[in-house]
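Issue 218. Parser rejects a valid record. Input:
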Amino acid sequence: MLLRKILLWLALPATALLAVWSIVGAFLGAEQASKLFNSTPMVCIWCGLAVLLAVGVVHSAWRLRRPVLAVMHLGALLIIIGSMINSCRGHELARYFGIDKPVRGYMVLFRGHQSNSLLDSPDGKPAATLPFGLKLEDCRVECYPPADPTWLLVAEMPADRPAGEPQRTLLQWRSDKPTGIPGTSASVRVLRYVPCARAIYSEGTRRVLVIRCRGQKLIVPAEPGRQVMLENPRRSLRISGLYTRPSPRWNESGLDVVEDPSARRSPAVKVEIEEADGDKDKTVRLVFQDLPMHGQADGLAMRYVETWPIDAVADAASDTPAMLLEVSFADRSERVWLAPETPNMPDGLEISSLLAQAEKKDRLPEVTLYLVRPTSQIKRYQARLAVLESGRNVAEKLIEVNRPLHYGGFHVYWHYCDPVDPRYVMLSVRSDSGLTVVYAGFALLCGGIFAWGWAKPAWKSLSRRSDNGD
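Output the parser choked on:
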């Protein structure tokens, strides 16, 4: 009886303290809460509760001869032990026994690419590797149909201050009359709208390199040897090569690119960047047509794209539209096809470069027109992952939110992707160490509660009825 009282008086304050810390952790966010529950005071509380539960199991089974109560104590004990094994401190302890397994991490995968490298945070640095590789076979975002499927026409003007955001305005366009562009005397009229369209380019269509750097924007023909100078900071950019099927390789002299007909990559341009003051070594960037992120560095954004189409035709297989626009300013007007901002468009339609301006007093501000998909509620995110070992595909799964891939001691969850351009996905990887113990604990705890609260009273009631002859 004395031991029972001691256990109760020790368990109550420990449980109350754990409840208070759990409430505090709920307001700290995931990262800070993880640090809190892996702190030294919390480890002491976890170990103390585990010892109390272990004593409770022995006491209930041996002294009180109550197996159901012992099962409930054992279930709670297994939950705590499994959680401790799955914690950061648990993984640190496992390393002393030769088990080196990352606790968690993040992985960014582009469609068709593979990796086994984990980042320490969504925008962090490489921290660990998986014992197997993952390849993103496909990635898509399924949305509910919007109320109006017509794409939106947006006008963008530069920010009114160096560090500000560009000003974007939704144009309420109509096909029967011109629509004014705010902040200018220019207007735009939609002559034709093709809901599902395929752009047509003239033979020999040239690609261009679109360069943005701290307010500057240049559209440079993609020609080997072409060189431009940027200001703030002052640097030169030189196009040193064009590739249809590039295969990049790093060697002692830097980045080397060769043509490889078997390479599954989009066209790319090789750009050499050199600071005007000569303080830094020359850097080389390979900008792919379908991977604009490869052109981002040090306030510099580059995109390798095709020029504007000359026509568009209906195509039931396409999910993007096209617009034939008539842009007017002063006494000039031009007609041009506009498609959504994709690798097939040089960063929208910049009307100031489209329309010639004869007099400085009629200068038109830098205005860019975009077609934007109408927003609608997202139905589901999906990504098809392949698991690779020694270069061989050993498993595949279509993952969704809360439907992860489980392989090799890890759960791989969907974390993020761009719903507008789902060419890459960020995955969240979690170790499964100790989870089997946790699940077993929950099964024992729930079974014990069921037996204690319902099965045992029901059995007693049936026994009494049997004894009474009912």
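Fixed in the parser; the record now loads. The first helix runs from residue 2 to 26.
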